[in-house]
Amino acid sequence: MKFGKQKRHRRAVRFYTTCFGFRQPFKVLCDGTFIFNLVQYGVAPADEAISDALGGPVKLFTTRCIIAELERLLIKKKKKKKKEPETVGDSYSITLEEKKKKKELERLGDPYSSTLEAAQMLAIARCDHEKQTSGATCVREIIGKNNPEHFFLATNDPDLREEFRKVPGVPRMFCLRNSLFLEKLSGFELQFVKNSEEERLHMAESDLNMLKKRGVNTSVTKERKDSSDEDEGLVDEKSKMHDIKGRQAERKGMNVKEKVQFKRKKAKGPNPLSCKKKKSHGTPNPVSEKKSKVGENTASRSRKRKRSSKGNKRVEANG
Prior knowledge:
Layout: H1 3-20, E1 26-30, H2 32-40, H3 46-54, E2 58-62, H4 64-80, H5 96-109, H6 111-120, E3 123-124, H7 135-143, E4 151-154, H8 158-164, E5 172-176, E6 179-182, H9 187-201, H10 205-253, H11 286-301, H12 309-318
Parallel strand pairs: 1-2, 1-4, 2-3, 4-5
Antiparallel strand pairs: 5-6
Helix pairs in contact: 2-6, 4-6
């Protein structure tokens, strides 16, 4: 598969998964024309080829009506075939065993019979038809208007594909020789998704009317509650005032003070033990104190020098 084609298929599958809720494994509803084309051009195994096209695991389905339609087509095809005359001559003769082999090869190579066998191998989608109908009508009734089972429709009938382009949420596949294609998104589907998103953003008229009615009812109930609360508040205040007046009258008769009078506490002085002693205002100069201390030390340490008698004697002798 080419890169551009694969990219287009993946984008379409992503659109259907996000907007319409398709999930893996994808369910593919195959009709007789699609199966016939797969068999005729040898696209096998079909489930792997379709899974490569969709980018995920798939499960193939068909219906009983489609299988019955293929059986009817096969019977008609056999009836139309003319019987070959048995000719026996000197130069040309056919034995019965050779005729049987020829019929067997024709049966194996007949696309109608192999199409029927391939359809019978697929899973059967339930259809509630008492009488067998055509494959197209059966597909229409199974998919319906909303495609509730999330089927990928695989058909080579162009009229059927054109019809389902106007139904939202129905991806359409077809087989062209040995290639599988997923149709582009139709304008109807894109518009449908756009409108649905706008409806989600905006409120419906029925919901808006319901909210308006609820708002009116809530406002009326609130007003009633407020008025009732005000009335109850007035009654409570009146009853409280009446009780207070009665208590005051009883106290006056009993000579009881209304309130207990407490003595005011006077401000006390600081604790003298926790206070520091006051310093004297005349603070002496620390430099002068140092000098006086040095003088006292020098005065106390001054000693008189004692002269020896030997020195005096020497002076006298020299004189």
